[in-house]
Write a structure and sequence with these properties.
It is a single chain. The protein is an alpha+beta fold. It is built from three helices and 14 strands. The longest helix has 21 residues. The chain is flat, with a radius of gyration of 38 Å. About 5% of the residues have low confidence.
């Protein structure tokens, strides 16, 4: 009811609903409950599906040993089989540069019951990819009615056209003055824009660091200043620094 405006004493009783209860149904491939096929979570009172991949040599699956129409507790369910004399076939799997697994997993590829439908999963090796199959349909599986050979085709991974155009990532280089320093940012209040104090060479240091680096280099190479060509290079470097100051400051 509406209890916004209370004008008299009233007694209120809270009513709680019960949360949904789920039970675990475990499916086994044998009556000894040793070969677990899988589990299924079922709501209380609902029906378990039991869609498991069952298989046994020279036997036909006829159902489960317990009813699954209404589940009210945890269940251990075993598959029931009927013995029949069957014809057997051999399935040869060829997989170069990869591995192939068979479902149902209880199947022996050298001794497969006639009419069994197999599903294959391929895992390529490093540097390879699955390009297709020979003798197998991914959609419908493989119905074994005779001796069969299945080939998983793997091809090497090749870079795409875009990956070939992109250059390889170079390892980050450390600056000789401050290897871990980040670019500094200052705001120009008059022009209301952000100016970046970047070095035009490595884009990580400020102009002050450029002159410090130049001074340290000059101390180590001052004996070479007697050469006219070297003096010309020094002049060009000074002009470059002055131009960078005008541009970035």
């Amino acid at each position: 009811g509406d209890y916004t405006f209370v004008t008299e004493d009233r007694r209120i009783r809270a009513v709680y609903g019960q949360d949904d209860v789920y039970w675990t149904v475990s499916f086994y491939n044998d009556g000894w409950y040793a070969d677990l096929l899988g589990t299924e979570q079922v709501a209380d009172g609902e029906k378990a599906v039991g869609n498991m991949e069952v298989y046994m040599d020279d036997h036909v699956f006829i159902g489960w040993d317990k009813p699954l129409d209404e589940v009210h507790s945890d269940l251990n369910v075993a598959a029931q089989y009927e013995w029949r004399e069957m014809e057997h076939h051999k399935v040869t799997i060829i997989a170069e540069h990869g591995t192939v697994t068979i479902r149902p997993r209880q199947v022996n590829p050298d001794f497969v019951n006639h009419g069994t439908v197999l599903f294959l999963e391929a895992v390529p090796d490093d540097g390879y990819k699955l390009s297709g199959w020979e003798g197998y349909s991914v959609q419908f599986g493989l119905a074994v009615t005779q001796d069969t050979t299945v080939t998983a085709l793997f091809t090497p991974n090749t870079p795409t056209a875009l990956e070939e155009l992109l250059p390889a990532e170079a390892p980050p280089q450390r600056h000789p003055l401050h290897p871990r320093r980040r670019p500094s940012i200052r705001r120009n209040r008059k022009k209301s824009r952000i100016r970046y104090r970047f070095c035009p060479c490595c884009h990580t240091c400020s102009q002050k660091d450029i002159f410090l680096l130049f001074f340290a280099w000059y101390l180590h190479t001052r004996n070479a200043l007697k050469s006219s060509a070297f003096r010309f290079c020094i002049c060009l470097f000074i002009i470059f620094c002055l131009m960078s100051v005008v541009i970035f400051f």
